[in-house]
Structure to design on (725 residues):
């Protein structure tokens, strides 16, 4: 099962990540390496630490121990690197290259669709308005929202909001995308539109880490599936191998439970 | 010239006496205004008279729209003219009561709105009516729901007592003014009074959650 | 009791001068206290503990003491440090300090009311904490806090009356002088009470109109960061 990641050129390198909240351990010594162009799907029961792991990748949740490197450069490490302004600046620079998509979309309600995509380009990437708008329109076209550019977020459906959030990230020319359950908050009939956009990105060679519950999607886009439980990586490998014939009892159990619920009406998902 | 703490310490006993007067004024004013506001609230709900409602609305708007200092002057200077010869302390308490009652009427209106219609109906169906309905069922729930804003109103009232110094009521503010007009050390003396006001108000405003918890337990 | 109406006409110029002074003082205090209140509100969520402690203390001290004693403290403390200002300026400074403590709490409440995901998504694009505030959080805060800001403005108008105690010649001081000359306190004080009332009603009306404008422009979509169920019928 072991994919020989060591031999590839590792692009994102997370080593020895530990994190606990209040009195709950979310991550215990997790390491994850992602080579350029790879699509990694993280699956696991809720509370297994998969979202926390994703959020430490851009240091949005600072880890208690361990370090994250992107292309060899430090993103975050414990002791807390926000302690000086220089480090804070380098963290912000790293984040500008890492796009993050949230379960709850987090589009900005006080800006229209176009401004949502233009704003971070001008504020963070320091692009002029002309370039920013051109890039924004291209990104919106990529997610199929070019005709909504003057709309307000509150008039968009959940699926459209999520595609807007993806466009906002794409316009920043990210080298890595982190997606935290991007379809979990969507009504079932809106899921496919978002997944189609992600699949397209995967085919174009975007490096992505996706926390997801959609096993079918994971099977079709992932180069590698990582199964987590109890704040640890239990099993990882190519989707065809580990989703068909899991080698650990825990993944077996997880997949069985999921298959049982899969026969229930779709609204359960 | 520099800050000399001995003047603060020397003033402390008298400042403490002044604090007691301040607390008494605030407690009296608060008690009267809660009673007045409760009566008005019940009367307004029961009578449904539009004229009464309009008068109360204008009264509340006037109180909320004008400085309490001016209200204090009005009561202090005007009541003697119409033949009511009351001292500054009584005038002060009357002014504080009239002011605070307006705010408490608004608070109780909010509290009353949180008591469901079903409570009225359930009590009536049990044969409770009039006085008993209000005292046993409606008002306890209204006050329970109003504890945090009532505590806040009490701190407002506590702070407002300091304005009575302007009509010669000898409370904490006035006491400190008397002391420093003798020893010419206003900063040291005022600092002492300032700390006392802060301790009183801070303690009261922090008590809101404690009060809520206490009443919550009693009710269970 | 008979009312002497001639006082209104004879002393109107004096009262209106005081009225104008009150407006100037309140406007001055607001201009100072809005930015300072914002700084205090942001200071309370600083990652430096010292900044948090200092700003929180400032806010709590000014909210938990009577304005009149704050005024007297400024009146005596400023000259103590060699700052000899005319009474009106001392009054503006005192009112601004008082106002900024309250404005800070209003702004902080507004910031907290914006969904947490909004700040996270802004930080995730690489914005600094300040930029995230400036471009994403504060614009969403404004429509939330306007009603509370209105109330604080009205309260500044009312508190400004206290400045008469340090001889600032504002509206209440004007009435005290008229009262001293005429021995007709009722006429003097009811007159200024009506003037304060009218001023506050005017401010409240203007602000309510502004609130409506702002909330319609911001499309009232500020809760969208929270899982708001979308109507499933919308085509995607």
């Amino acid at each position: 099962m072991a994919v020989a990641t060591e031999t590839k050129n590792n692009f994102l390198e997370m080593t020895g990540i530990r994190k606990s909240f209040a009195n709950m351990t979310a991550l215990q010594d997790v390491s994850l390496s992602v080579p350029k162009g790879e699509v990694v799907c993280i699956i696991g029961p809720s509370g297994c630490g998969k979202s926390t792991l994703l959020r430490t990748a851009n240091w949005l949740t600072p880890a208690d121990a361990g370090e994250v490197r992107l292309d060899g450069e430090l993103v975050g490490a414990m002791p807390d690197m926000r302690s000086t302004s220089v480090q804070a600046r380098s963290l912000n620079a790293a984040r500008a290259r890492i796009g993050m998509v949230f379960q709850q979309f987090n589009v900005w309600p006080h800006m229209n669709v176009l401004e949502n995509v233009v704003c971070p380009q001008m504020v963070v990437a320091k692009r002029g308005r002309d370039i920013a708008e051109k890039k924004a329109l291209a990104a919106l076209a990529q997610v199929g929202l070019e005709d909504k550019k003057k709309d307000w977020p509150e008039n968009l459906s959940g699926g459209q909001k999520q595609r807007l959030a993806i466009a906002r990230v794409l316009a920043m020319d990210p080298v890595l995308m982190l997606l935290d359950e991007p379809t979990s908050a969507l009504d079932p009939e809106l899921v496919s539109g978002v997944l189609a956009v992600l699949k397209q990105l995967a085919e174009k060679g975007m490096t992505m880490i996706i926390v997801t519950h959609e096993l079918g999607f994971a099977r079709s886009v992932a180069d590698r599936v990582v199964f987590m439980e109890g704040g640890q990586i239990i099993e990882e490998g190519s989707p065809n191998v580990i989703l068909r014939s899991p080698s650990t009892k825990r993944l077996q159990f997880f997949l069985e439970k999921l298959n049982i619920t899969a026969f229930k009406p779709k609204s359960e998902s | 010239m520099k800050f000399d703490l001995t003047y603060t310490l020397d003033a402390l006993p008298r400042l403490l006496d002044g604090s007691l007067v301040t607390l008494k004024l605030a407690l009296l004013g608060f008690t009267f205004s809660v009673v007045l506001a409760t009566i008005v609230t019940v009367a307004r709900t029961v009578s449904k008279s539009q004229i009464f409602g309009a008068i109360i609305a204008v009264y509340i708007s006037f109180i909320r729209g004008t400085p309490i200092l001016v209200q204090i002057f009005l009561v202090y200077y005007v009541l003697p003219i119409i033949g009511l010869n009351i001292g500054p302390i009584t005038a002060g308490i009357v002014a504080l009561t009239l002011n605070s009652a307006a705010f408490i009427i608004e608070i109780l209106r909010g509290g009353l709105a949180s008591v469901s219609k079903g409570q009225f109906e359930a009590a009536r169906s049990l044969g409770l009516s009039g006085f008993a309905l209000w005292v046993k069922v409606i008002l306890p729930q209204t006050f329970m729901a109003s504890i945090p804003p009532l505590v806040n109103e009490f701190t407002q009232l506590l702070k407002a007592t300091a304005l009575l110094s302007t009509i010669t009521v000898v409370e904490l503010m006035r006491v400190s003014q008397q002391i420093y007009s003798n020893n010419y050390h206003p900063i040291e003396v005022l600092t002492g009074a300032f700390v006392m006001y802060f301790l009183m108000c801070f303690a009261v405003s922090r008590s809101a959650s404690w009060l809520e918890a206490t009443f919550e337990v009693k009710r269970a | 009791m008979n009312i002497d109406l001639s006082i209104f006409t004879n002393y109107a110029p004096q009262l209106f001068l005081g009225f104008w002074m009150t407006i100037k003082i309140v406007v001055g205090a607001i201009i100072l206290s809005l930015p300072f209140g914002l700084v205090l509100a942001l200071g309370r969520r600083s990652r430096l503990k010292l900044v948090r402690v200092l700003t929180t203390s400032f806010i709590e001290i000014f909210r938990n003491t009577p304005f009149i004693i704050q005024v007297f403290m400024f009146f005596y403390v400023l000259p103590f440090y060699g700052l000899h200002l005319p009474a009106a300026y001392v009054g503006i400074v005192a009112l601004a300090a008082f106002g900024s403590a309250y404005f800070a709490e209003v702004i902080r409440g507004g910031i907290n009311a914006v969904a947490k995901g909004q700040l996270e998504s802004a930080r995730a694009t690489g914005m600094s904490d300040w930029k995230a505030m400036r471009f994403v959080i504060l614009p969403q805060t404004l429509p939330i806090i306007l009603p509370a800001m209105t109330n604080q403005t009205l309260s500044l108008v009312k508190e400004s009356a206290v400045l008469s105690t340090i001889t600032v010649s504002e509206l209440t001081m004007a009435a005290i002088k008229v009262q001293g000359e005429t021995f007709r306190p009722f006429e003097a004080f009811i007159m200024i009470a009506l003037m304060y009332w009218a001023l506050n009603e005017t401010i409240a009306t203007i602000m309510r109109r502004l609130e409506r404008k702002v909330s319609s422009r911001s499309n009232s979509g500020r809760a969208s960061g929270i899982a708001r169920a979308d109507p499933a019928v919308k085509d995607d």
Summary: Confidence is low (pLDDT under 50) at residues 219-236 of chain C. The helical segments of chain C are 6-43, 49-63, 67-80, 87-113, 116-124, 129-159, 171-182, 185-217. Residues 162 and 222 of chain C are 39 Å apart (CA to CA). Chain C has one domain: 6-217.
